[in-house]
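In response to reviewer comment 3 from the previous cycle, which asked for concrete evidence that the modeling workflow produces usable outputs, we include below a single protein chain processed end to end. The sequence was submitted unchanged, and the resulting structure tokens are shown without manual editing.
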Amino acid sequence: MSYRVYFPLMFLISCLGAGFTQTQSSAANQKQTIRVGIAATMNRSNRQVMPTWERDQLVRELQRLRNERKSTIVIEAVALEATAREDAQAEAEKKGCQYFVLTTLLNPSRGPGISGGPDGSQGAPVLIGNTNPNKTLAMNFIILRVSSARTVAEGTSSAPVADGNDVRAADDAARFVAHRVASELRSSRPPKID
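The workflow returned the following structure tokens.
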């Protein structure tokens, strides 16, 4: 290969490599961190679980899901001591969170039902199929904006109670909720940070 062809070719390759590196670093600089406060879980079920333990499980799982290669959103989960909506909103605001998550453990039922608690009533999750409601635990979640307390997303995850291990079932439900929360915050319509 002659020098006339070799040097321009090497120059072109080095320029393309430099442009690729700049594109990669500029994409990394565009990452956006979202702080999400996780309130202590409210237990309306007849299962023996610790609300702060389940909150901590949700925080740990969200920290594990903190980064996703295809997303520019980085999730930073923050533990909150509050369980009630108003208290959690105020605490999340103090801790610099843009969003906060409320979770409630419930006993699912075969048909429409209501679960009552100190903060009012809530519909009990309905199981479809032949799943035994006595061997299933459900966790409702709601994601709210701190600035307006407006609901961003809500849903329910359930997990089977194997060998009477309520804590393991609640941990599994918290893991499912964490995946749903991360997915909602990274949805194709990324949440606008106020």
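DSSP finds four helices and eight strands in the chain. We consider this sufficient to address the reviewer's concern, and the full set will be provided in the supplementary archive.
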